[in-house]
Amino acid sequence: MTAAIRLEQVTKIHRPKGDRGGAPALDDVSLTVPRGAFLAVMGRSGSGKSTLLHCAAGLDAPTRGRVWIGDTEIGRLRETARTRLRRERVGFVFQAYNLIPSLTLEENITLPLRLAETPGDETWLGAIVDRVGLGDFLSRKPGELSGGQQQRVAVARALATRPDVVFADEPTGALDPATGDQILSLLDDLVRDLGQTVVMVTHDPSAAARAHDVVVMEGGRIVQVLHSPDAPLLTAVLGGRAR
């Protein structure tokens, strides 16, 4: 079966135009994410985890290497086609929710469909709204909700197009521990019950421990892959790398 995401020898160097120097933010990274996986990408600030997400999601182009979403190699696409791929086949959940305050919850959730100019699957949308537990709030605006409820809206929006993969960038970073745990449980349910692929970037060992597998990054490289680790082990891994 085709992987949901595949990176092959990806290097990304951020440098001003004309400057040939600069240390790589990603350094020869290869990674395959199977369909239906819940993968956490973990590391300290500057480890390269956010750059990996941006390259894997098609938000940024690697300096070298190749990236696939499903069976589509992103680097072979023109910018218009790459934008369409992100709208239709990739979902995003961010720390700051990124909801539009002037739109209702229903309008926020269906925004990716309107941008992609596709009608969407009403049965699917109804199932997703029920799954996040906000069916009675669709006419409200984001400002009327708690942070946890807003993040649930963001999760529903990410799923609206039935994407190949959902990328979650520090999805619990702005939430208290109890609410954050509810969001992580929701993501886990989506993987287990719906077969959704989720790639989550986090610096929090407790959040990472909710994933099935954890990639640990340091200096732009993948330095360790852990299967079903617990939070104390992940804390020890990061602590050991800090010394």
Main attributes?
243 residues; alpha/beta; Rossmann fold; 4-stranded antiparallel sheet; 8 helices; 37% helix
Structural account:
This protein has 243 residues and is α/β, with parallel strands linked by helices. It has a domain at 37-47 and 84-242: P-loop containing nucleotide triphosphate hydrolases (Rossmann fold, 3-Layer(aba) Sandwich), CATH 3.40.50. It contains 8 helices and 10 strands. The chain has helices at residues 49-56, 79-89, 105-116, 122-132, 147-159, 177-194, 205-208, 231-242; strands spanning 5-13, 24-33, 38-42, 64-69, 72-73, 90-94, 165-169, 198-202, 213-218, 221-227. The strands form 2 sheets. A 6-stranded mixed β-sheet has the order 6-7-8-3-9-10. A hairpin with a 2-residue loop joins strand 9 (213-218) and strand 10. The protein is globular, with a radius of gyration of 18 Å. The termini are far apart. The mean pLDDT is 90.
Helices and strands in order:
Elements: E1 5-13, E2 24-33, E3 38-42, H1 49-56, E4 64-69, E5 72-73, H2 79-89, E6 90-94, H3 105-116, H4 122-132, H5 147-159, E7 165-169, H6 177-194, E8 198-202, H7 205-208, E9 213-218, E10 221-227, H8 231-242
Parallel strand pairs: 3-8, 3-9, 6-7, 7-8
Antiparallel strand pairs: 1-2, 1-4, 4-5, 9-10
Helix pairs in contact: 3-5, 4-5, 5-6
Strands, total number: 10
Please, what is the CATH homologous superfamily of one domain? P-loop containing nucleotide triphosphate hydrolases
What's the CATH architecture name of one domain?
Answer: 3-Layer(aba) Sandwich
Amino- and carboxy-terminal Cα gap: 41 Å
Shape: globular
What share of residues are in beta strands? 15-25%
Largest sheet entry = 6 strands, mixed
Radius of gyration: 18 Å
Count of helical segments? Answer: 8
| Uncertain runs | none
Approximate helicity band: 25-40%
Report the top-level CATH class of one domain: Alpha Beta
Task: Give the strand order, joined by hyphens, for the main sheet.
Answer: 6-7-8-3-9-10
The name of the CATH topology of one domain is Rossmann fold
